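From the pipeline queue, job 12 of 40. The input is one protein chain; the requested action is below.

Action: predict structure.
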Amino acid sequence: MRLSDLQSKNVITTDGKLIGNIIDVVIEKGTIKYLIVEKSKFLISLFTTKDELEISWQQIKIIGDDVIIVECQ
């Protein structure tokens, strides 16, 4: 699987909430350690702020055809 394949998938939690999309990965010693996910929050004023979230590789439960399901604490 290529990084571009991962980037085309939505990242959701095990309870079905959309987190966002993968924008980068952190690799240490040849192993993927974290996915960097860009998420959007819509404020009442309709402005969007972008945040990044690190999701460890161990949090990934399923990589499907269209989505990546992760366990969030």
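Job complete. The radius of gyration is 13 Å.
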